[in-house]
Amino acid sequence: MQAFWNRRRQHSQQFAVIGLGRFGRSVCRTLKSMGCEVLGVDKDEHLVASVSDEAVVDHAVELDSTDPGALKDAGLFEFETVIVAIGNFIQESVVTTLNLKEGNVANIIAKASTDIHGRLLEKVGATKVVYPEKQMGEHLARSLVRPNIIERLELDPENSIVEVRVPEAFVGKSIVDLRLRNEYGISVIALGRQGSHFEINPNPTAPLEAGMMMWVIGSNQALNKITDLGR
User: Fold this and answer.
1) Number of other residues whose CB lies within 10 A of the CB of residue 229
2) Which pLDDT belongs to residue 154?
3) What is the pLDDT of residue 182?
4) How many other β-carbons are positioned within 10 Å of the β-carbon of residue 230?
5) Residue 167: pLDDT over 90
6) How far apart are CA 150 and CA 5, in angstroms?
7) Can you tell me whether residue 216 is helix, strand or coil?
8) What sign does the CA torsion over 1, 58, 102, 95 have?
9) Looking at residue 114, what DSSP letter applies?
10) Percentage of residues in the chain with pLDDT exceeding 90?
């Protein structure tokens, strides 16, 4: 354990994840793959053993996160960012978040299962609340209605960035020819083929080809007009 804390002081990005279910493990795995140092925490010894065996964390601790003394002893209050990935046990999630807030953790990212759960987390000190199930449901619904949208990044409720297949009506024409900004109110920020290199700020006079993907930014209303062309 001491060796782990010694290593922590030598790195700039460390995260603790409390709750090692599917969501928590996914967060751990992704952070670890990005070169971050990760501490996994859960009260279930089997989940703690599992993430250790899978090597998706640098260290794993079995403890009850509703006990502030246990969090302090394990060094959780020393982390700048802690992810509370307990979504299905509302009381445990809320109490854990409160403990972290009272332990002066700067950034507390908490998973919520419902809107009420999310509001409770915000009231007790969560810096950011995420709704993975809700977001997955929205993503599925959108993919069914507009299957040509590959990825979507919402900037705010009215504006987004999306990756979309070049509509057949655009093939052979250039960005200049299409007058996308004037006609549709969108801007193309990258162009390429899926799984290969994308050109940022692409040549506006080059003709678009079938099978190309483009990243475009604009209002959701404007983006819907573009994506409807590919239906």
Assistant:
1) 15
2) 79
3) 87
4) 16
5) no
6) 41
7) strand
8) negative
9) S
10) 51
Contact 14, 37 (CB under 8 A): yes
Q: Which band of pLDDT confidence, cut at 50, 70 and 90, is reported for residue 2?
A: very low
pLDDT for 1 beyond 50: no
**pLDDT tens profile 82-104:** 999 997 789 999 999 999 999 99
Check pLDDT > 60 for residue 146. Answer: yes
Residue 39 host element (H or E): strand 37-42
Q: Tokens 């899978």 map to which residue? A: 54
- Burial of 35-64, coded b for 16+ CB within 10 Å and e otherwise, reads ebbbbbbbbeeebbebbeeeebbbbbbbbe
Contacts of 115 (CB under 8 A, 6+ apart): none
d(CA 123, CA 116): 11
Q: Single out the residue of 69, 97, 71 nearest to residue 83, CA to CA.
A: 97
3-state secondary structure 58-90: CEEEECCCCCHHHHHHCCHHHCCEEEECCCCCH
Cα distance between residue 213 and residue 189, in whole Å: 11
Considering only CA atoms, give the Rg of the chain: 22
**How many angstroms separate the CA atoms of 216 and 178, rounded?**
14
SS (H, E, C) 159-207: EEEEEEECCHHHCCCCHHHHCHHHHCCEEEEEEECCCCCEEECCCCCCC
Nearest CA to 164 out of 223, 96, 88 is that of 223
Beta carbons of 19 and 85 less than 8 angstroms apart: yes
